[in-house]
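TL;DR need structure tokens for one chain.
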Amino acid sequence: MKYAVDGKTMKLIDSDTINKVGIPSLVLMERAAYSVYEEIIKHAESSGRILIICGSGNNGADGVALARILNENGYVSDIYFAGNEEHYTEEMKLQSDIAHKIGLNIVKETRFCEYNIVVDAIFGIGLSREISGKYKELIEKMSGCDALKIAIDISSGINSGTGEIMGIAVKNDITVTFGTFKTGMLLYPAAEYSGEIIVKNPGFPEFVIEKNNQGVYVTEKTDVQRMLPKRYPDSHKGTYGKILVIAGSVNMSGAAILSGIAAYRSGCGLVKICTAEENREIIQISVPEAVMLTYGSDENDIDRIKNEIEMSTAIVCGPGIGKGEIAAKIVEAVLRSGKKAVIDADALNIISENQYLKEYYNENIVITPHIMEFSRLTGLTIKEIKADSIVACRNYAEKNKITCVLKDSRTVIADSSGNVFINTSGNSGMSTAGSGDVLAGITGSLLGQGMSVTEGAALGAYIHGLAGDAARNKFGERGMTAGDICESIASVI
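>> reply
TL;DR here they are.
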């Protein structure tokens, strides 16, 4: 996993590296510029031209240093100074002075159509105000050009912490960022402006990054095999967990089917599906490996379900169960059991309408709300949640001592200790009915196999997204279904 930090924290990392460790700012700048150079030459043509647009701060200074390195190595690159000379940082003053002394080509106007690559070095991670005036006009022109656009550290115009667009932003194809991911570039809408993100470390010591980290992490492919529960030659179905999937109601059998298949495809040993009696036949046909437990409106049915809850390793509760009286009693029984449990969909709506159920929240609970469900749970508006989804998710998880998987175009996971994971896998094709049921099944399966709620929730979201990406590659984002995601789980694992 890699860390993700906001701009303020990254400045602390930079400051500690310079002032406490003793690595000079210009050394870091030179190495940062060279790391961008290494990426640019992968795309640059020997006969092509490169334009570097530099602002007044250290981001602009990185750009000037990059121009020098490019020219030293035979690449035609021009500099356009977009910033106000009166506001230059000391590093920018020095880099500008060097550029003039060695005769780098400095252009007075931007003719974007003449360049193959345009480098965005206007604003760095400290931007906090809305862009207007000449900068807005410049970015509008940049956005209209066909050149490959590459950002130094961050796309100009995005908030490095929240992902907000500060009026306007450069839509880059590639971002070469330094030290760690910046949280804002991972979140929408800013993620759409960041393009492919490449993390380079120009010399920040790992212990400095760890000391200043905010407890925000980004899951990567290398984490999947490292974190997945081990498989043993000498094992049986009980070794890998007994998962109780409480899902589906009359005319809502699909949720139970998808959650049950997803749980099996994620490696658990046994799935028992608890659902309305009317769903028995179709579920037995669709998921023949699952054991069935059906219920009606009899109080004795609740007692049987409570007994199954106690016998289970982990529980998935909520997809398609409705909001009736029996469903509410089942949700309460699951919460009160203290078992590892994924609470999803209708179960969350039941909690929203029966706030006393939050009294039974505990550290074994994982909730998986989408934005609207989270709004009902918290009383926050969708706009308030999206303004800073990390803070909203973390606050709710810490306050209630649970793990929260806040599903959105960028899913954010927070646990009871305040650790946060930003999930970067997945695509728009997963915005389809049943996708959340698949996630619930994957996560419940991982918990049942022995993973902690924190790691199970983070890895569950990541595997879900990888399976979605595999389904997209086969069917396309428009044509894929939740069932396609299910069928891709095993292959991506």
